[in-house]
Q: What sequence folds into this?
């Protein structure tokens, strides 16, 4: 949901659902992250966002997000199940041919945020990706998962993380822990503390360690 929160922040900054889907599918996710909200159900996301905002506060994202989800639900924009969400669902219309829902566009405008950087494909990929990677590392740090292998298997088979990238921990090793921490700190300086790297990653970068030997 942390990466999902970043998706909605990007939408608040003017990215379109198709921008999000193109970028996340290009990264390797089987389903675009905007479409995924419609598939799971925005009503479901509304319940999750409300509870997670209470527990995590600013770490999750902007405090207006639960209300944004509630407004979408009140307008029956629950996703595929109601025929409309971020997209409009019509019989015979598939994938990239779907129309962005103008009702969604109007509602999101009420929650608009200023973009601090140009919203490019790379910007979308890193902002959503870094949130995913950071929370994966936090799960290991807090012993929610017992090993990087468990985290990678769970992310690939349970969350759709691109299998060709090996999972979040394998990806961090490949890209370099220090490089990931540097990117997180860059985004932290540009945006806010939601991009602050977890202590595990900071320590590993300092000691030049990897998750896998």
A:
């Amino acid at each position: 949901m942390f990466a999902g929160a970043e998706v909605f922040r990007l939408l608040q900054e003017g990215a379109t659902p198709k921008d999000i889907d193109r970028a996340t599918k290009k990264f390797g996710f089987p389903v675009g992250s905007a479409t995924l909200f419609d598939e799971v159900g925005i009503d479901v996301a509304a319940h999750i966002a409300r509870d997670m905002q209470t527990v995590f506060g600013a770490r999750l994202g902007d405090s207006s997000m639960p209300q944004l989800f509630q407004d979408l639900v009140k307008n029956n924009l629950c996703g595929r199940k109601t025929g409309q969400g971020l997209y409009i669902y019509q019989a015979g219309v598939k994938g990239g041919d779907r129309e962005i829902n103008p009702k969604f566009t109007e509602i999101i405008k009420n929650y608009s945020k200023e973009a601090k950087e140009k919203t490019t494909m790379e910007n979308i990929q890193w902002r959503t990706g870094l949130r995913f990677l950071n929370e994966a590392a936090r799960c290991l740090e807090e012993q929610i998962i017992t090993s990087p292998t468990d985290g990678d298997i769970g992310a690939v088979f349970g969350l759709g993380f691109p299998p060709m990238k090996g999972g979040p921990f394998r990806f961090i090793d490949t890209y370099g822990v220090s490089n990931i921490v540097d990117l997180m700190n860059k985004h932290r300086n540009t945006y806010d503390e939601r991009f602050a790297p977890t202590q595990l990653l900071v320590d590993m970068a300092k000691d030049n360690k990897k998750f896998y030997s």
Q: What stands out?
A: The mean pLDDT is 94. Residues 121-206 form a domain with the N-(1-d-carboxylethyl)-l-norvaline Dehydrogenase; domain 2 fold (CATH 1.10.1040.50).
